[in-house]
Amino acid sequence: MMGGYETVSWTREGRFVVNPVAITSFDAKDNADGTKTYTFHLANNLTYNDGHPITANDYVFNILYAASPQAVEIGASYGTGPEYVGYDDYHSGKVDYFEGIRILSDYSFSITIKAEELPYFFDLSLVSVTPIPLHVIAPGVEVLNTPRGAALSKNFTADLLRETVLKPGTGYRYRPLVTAGPYQFEDYNPADSTASVVLNPLFLGEHDGAKGSIYRVIIKLTNTATEMDELRTGAIDMLQGVSGGDSISRGLHLYDAGIVNFASYPRYGYGKIAFACDFGPTQFDAVRRAIAYSLDRNEFARQYTGGYGIIVNGYYGASMWEYLENTATLDRELNANPLNMQTAEEELINDGWTLNRDGRPYQEGVDTIRHKRVDGQLMPLVIEWANTANNPVSDLIATMLVPEVRKIGMQINGTTVDFAVLIDHLYKENIDEPVYGMFNLGTGFATTQAYWYYYSTDPEYFGVYNTNFIADKELEAISLDMKRTDPTDLDGWSQKWIRFQKRWNYLLPDIPLYSDVYHDFFNPRIVNYDSGSTWDFRYAIIRANVK
């Protein structure tokens, strides 16, 4: 909502288009060496909300900053632009210039994509860049146009970024006061996690001309148990992405009473059990499959969604076109992992979980926890599970899964933590040692599903991208083959996507629990609010009005 004037925009129809508000013209050139260069010519009337002009320097600075070794030094877990020529040398600090990025004038710049990255299925999305305020994030720093590529002046340092970006209370990370989008930062209250934004009067419009008309938007956390009461009394005006049969039913009762309106759409994602695939028992795919066989997912989904959702057996959501076009194939070729305790136990036995705590053969009815010899040490089949409070999914896992796995010699220990703590452990950030091998949460897929990053074996992508920390070469190879699909070859992409799902379904880095139908409930005074599977609140609210 606060970012704007991107070079390439996402549309309501599900396409990437060059943004005509920011870009007056562009060119895409296939080079003799196999690379491809995009050249963008900017409108000369773009400004930030503080009135400062936006030029090519601000776009190029975003690329250089996000890919810089200085950004890594202050804690960035990965760089932006690995598909661009010269990224590797610049990101590593080997050179101080970015060969594939060029400033051509005050209002034009170019990006060159590596030959080995082409063809690329989401071609145009690779060159979607937004401006960020050089004069705020790196005051005094110059963007240089050297003969070898764009560069930043020597006074661009990690210490400077620690002051301008990371300083508590005033850093750009905490108070992004200068932005270019339809809304601008107003306030954030950490006590109740409430943030407010107001309209940016200098904003010229989204790709379709939308500027926003609701002056102030306040975003706050709600509690599932009380959020419908808040909506009913007018304490809040909208609940976005409501899931779960009980919550949806309560919202529909408010609709029947004339208190709210609603929009509904299939989820572009799913609710899941996520596994850490790099340590402990959950590093073994047989253990993950055994857990899946121990859970009646049909009953789980019925109880949670109340009929407002489906079960999926792979890394996809109910609204994805690949799923919709290949439903019969997926139903036939993917393992649904139906509840079967005998099969669950066989998975464990075949994987070597055949010992007791003393290293002797495990005896049912005598021993309680299976063990396996791993690197010369006995590993107990005990899984630490991080969950959150007031969460009906956590409650269902506790009643439907935890008691079942005890029958096959497995123990799952649940710990309730704040969601922020759960995310830190999922990403393995801000922690001393990994503790939890299992988590329950939801995921929403990106409009450009970069499978090759989400399942990369490169440790640089572990965490924010590859949240399972899974390093399977076959899965990675399939995803890289998908990446190289020509954007016009939808059939080729679809077949590779099925291959990916089959391998993923065997490995089970997640157990998909449900892909439900989301509901947005809102005050009837809000009109023209048109959300969808890939057109969520951040897009829809800018085009809505209050009557």
Architecture overview:
With 547 residues, the protein is of the alpha+beta class. Strand 10 and strand 11 (194-199) form a beta hairpin. The strands form seven sheets. Strands 13, 14, 15, 16, 19, 20, 21 and 22 form an eight-stranded mixed sheet that branches. A four-stranded antiparallel sheet has the order 3-4-7-6, covered by helices on one side. Helix 8 packs antiparallel against helix 12 (341-350) and helix 17 runs antiparallel to helix 18. The protein is built from 19 helices and 24 strands. The relative contact order is 0.13. It is globular and about 75 Å long. The chain folds into three domains: 8-164, Dipeptide-binding Protein, domain 1, CATH 3.90.76; 183-265 and 519-546, Periplasmic binding protein-like II (D-Maltodextrin-Binding Protein, domain 2, 3-Layer(aba) Sandwich); 269-517, Roll (Dipeptide-binding Protein, domain 3). The longest helix is centred in the last third of the chain and has 18 residues, at 490-507.
Helix proportion range: 25-40%
Q: Any idea how many domains?
A: 3
Global structural class = alpha+beta
> Beta fraction of the residues?
15-25%
Number of helices: 19
Quote the CATH topology of the largest domain. Answer: Dipeptide-binding Protein, domain 3
Please state the CA-atom Rg, rounded to the nearest Å.
Answer: 25 Å
By CATH reckoning, the class of the largest domain would read Alpha Beta
On the 0 to 100 scale, the average pLDDT is 96
Corresponding CATH superfamily of the largest domain: Dipeptide-binding Protein, Domain 3
The CATH architecture of the largest domain can be named as Roll
Distance between the termini: 21 Å
Please summarize the sheet with the most strands.
8 strands, mixed
Structure summary, number of beta strands: 24
Shape: globular
